[in-house]
User: Which sequence fits this backbone?
């Protein structure tokens, strides 16, 4: 009997990615704390920018967009993983799984596009400081961000569009949540073709955005001739973005480099790196921009000072 003829009607998936974890409760508590910090920190950044008219500038609109992406990206998978680890809820409906897959991949795509457009913003701000506000108005930034969300949604929709047409032979996921590779391996088809298809799309988005960011920084370094004070100011402005870029791209490039070197990562190691790409950058981003952005940092200190004055 062929696998296609042995296909089953899947209404729920069983998440088995944490079956070999020795202390699931401890890991679940750590993930829960990190997830709450991500949501709270990014929400605070969004509220600061939304309610302070002085922050209604292109750069801060992009920071706000990045915060929205971080909340969506972490919320796509973290609640499911925390539920498995702490509550033992290891099932997810087929429809919820497909939605989770779309939101997760949308978050991954938008994280890279958001970092790319932020690099472009810094490029224009430093190369054309006097024309910056005429080139990049708030309206143009909102429109450009909208275009990126539409493009990102199109890329993210490819994964569920491919998988919903395939028959399923298994209802157990070997991974920790519903991503493209996890659901693909439950189907009755040879996964290699579809994995290669996904790898091509991933490679295109990953390297296109990374090269775009690198070219933006090269443009800044090559075409801008500044005094020492301006260079110091430029370095402080770009450092926040560089930290966020490093935290996001490093795990992905580690996997690629190790694969090219012939180092076979276990499923647990790959899942660990994947979870790191979800939680790590989303936790670092809001704190980096809060502590390294003068306006937001000043606002936080003013609020804390006011609170301390009330209790003194």
Assistant:
């Amino acid at each position: 009997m062929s696998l296609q003829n042995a296909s089953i009607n899947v209404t729920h998936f069983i998440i088995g990615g944490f079956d070999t974890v020795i202390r699931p409760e401890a890991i679940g508590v750590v993930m829960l704390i990190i997830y709450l910090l991500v949501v709270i920190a990014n929400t605070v950044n969004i509220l600061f920018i939304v309610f302070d008219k002085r922050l209604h500038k292109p750069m801060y609109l992009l920071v706000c967009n990045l915060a929205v992406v971080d909340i969506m990206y972490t919320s796509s998978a973290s609640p499911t993983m925390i539920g498995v680890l702490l509550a033992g809820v290891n099932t997810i409906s087929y429809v919820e799984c497909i939605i989770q897959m779309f939101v997760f991949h949308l978050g991954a795509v938008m994280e890279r596009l958001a970092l790319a457009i932020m690099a472009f913003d810094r490029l224009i701000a430093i190369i054309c400081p006097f024309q910056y506000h005429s080139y990049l108005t708030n309206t143009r930034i909102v429109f450009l961000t909208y275009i990126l969300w539409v493009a990102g949604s199109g890329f993210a929709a490819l994964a569920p569009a491919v998988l919903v047409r395939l028959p399923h032979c298994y209802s157990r996921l070997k991974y920790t949540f519903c991503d493209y590779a996890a659901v693909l391996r439950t189907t009755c088809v040879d996964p290699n073709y579809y994995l290669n298809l996904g790898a091509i799309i991933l490679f295109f988005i990953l390297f296109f955005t990374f090269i775009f960011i690198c070219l933006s920084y090269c443009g800044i370094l090559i075409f801008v001739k500044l005094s020492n004070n301006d260079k110091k100011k430029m370095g402080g402005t770009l450092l926040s973005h560089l930290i966020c870029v490093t935290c996001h791209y490093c795990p992905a490039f580690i996997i690629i480099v190790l694969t090219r070197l012939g180092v076979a990562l276990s499923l647990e190691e790959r899942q660990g790196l994947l979870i790191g790409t979800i939680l790590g950058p989303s936790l670092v981003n809001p704190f980096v921009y809060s502590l390294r952005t003068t306006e937001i940092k000043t606002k936080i200190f003013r609020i804390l000072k006011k609170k301390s004055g009330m209790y003194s």
Summary: The mean pLDDT is 85. The beta strands are 12-15, 91-93, 172-173.
